[in-house]
Specification:
The chain is an all-alpha fold. It is built from nine helices and no strands. It is about 65% helix and about 0% strand.
Length: about 190
């Protein structure tokens, strides 16, 4: 067996669920949960899907088709966003390259990457729109749009602080979908 049961047990404990709660929420028999966690049975199909839904994990991650855990890569991935300070659109291009190269090899990167890239696309659009409207309003001598400069600065600070915070959270075992998911462009 692939030690799927041990992985399920580990995730269940991290989520603070008992076997009984997992069985109740997933609508899977308690004895089945016990057998899975003791590696007596290997969950398949619907059972695995129900358990993974309750534990908020993907079945691919639990089955580990050649995947491995690489926390340092996830940390670098989060911090790669900050390259936007030197390269326009670098906050999308570099993470996209890192994501495409390893999304099927590192556990959790597929979801984390899609979450990060969706946020960066929305952030880039908001930052561009705010500074463009501010610039046009200055050229046209409209004073009521000066707040957009402060919004632009706040967006820049946000896109520096969030990756650092999320890299620290990833280092401290809190990897997952951390960015707010405003619009889903990439899945």
């Amino acid at each position: 067996m692939n030690e799927i049961g041990k992985k399920i047990k580990e995730v269940r404990k991290k989520k603070g669920l008992s076997q009984e709660e997992l069985a109740e929420y997933s609508k899977v028999n308690l004895r089945t949960i016990q057998r899975i966690e003791n590696d007596e049975n290997e969950p398949r199909g619907k059972t695995l899907s129900l358990i993974c839904d309750v534990l908020d994990i993907n079945t691919e991650d639990i089955l580990d088709y050649g995947k491995y855990e690489d926390k340092s890569y996830l940390i670098v991935f989060h911090l790669s966003v900050i390259v936007f300070l030197a390269i326009p659109l670098g906050n999308i291009i570099l993470p996209l390259i890192l994501w495409v190269n390893k999304k099927d090899k590192i556990i959790g990167l597929k979801e984390i990457g899609a979450n990060l890239l969706n946020f960066q696309i929305v952030w880039t659009i908001l930052a561009f729109v705010s500074i463009a409207i501010f610039g046009i309003s200055k050229i046209m001598h409209y004073g009521q749009f000066s707040i957009l400069l402060y919004i632009f600065i706040a967006l820049y600070i946000l896109n520096i602080v969030l990756p650092i915070i999320f890299a620290i959270k990833t280092k401290n075992e809190k990897a997952g979908k951390l960015y707010p998911n405003l619009i889903k462009v990439i899945s």
